[in-house]
Write a structure and sequence with these properties.
By secondary structure, this protein is mainly alpha-helical. Helix content is 90%, strand content 0%.
Length: 77
């Protein structure tokens, strides 16, 4: 026969395990949100870099004399 104290201990243990799983699910959700934010940030950074690279390419491909382009580069640095 199982005693009352054993049943209570088993219930406590089951509740503790259940709480632990709930907490871990919340932690996983938080981690997932953080990862999504990081990915969004990285995407924004790469698109920003791509826009900058495209603008640099446009500047280089414009039909200005090379001397003017070189002066702008020197002035910018």
């Amino acid at each position: 026969m199982v005693t009352k104290s054993e049943v209570k201990a088993a219930l406590k243990k089951a509740k503790a395990v259940e709480k632990h799983h709930i907490i871990s699910d919340r932690e996983l959700a938080d981690q997932q949100k953080e990862l999504v934010e990081e990915v969004k940030l990285l995407n924004a950074m790469t698109t920003d870099r791509m826009v900058k690279a495209k603008s640099v390419l446009r500047k280089k491909s414009s039909r200005k004399p090379r001397s003017l382009v070189k002066k702008k580069v020197k002035a910018g640095q």
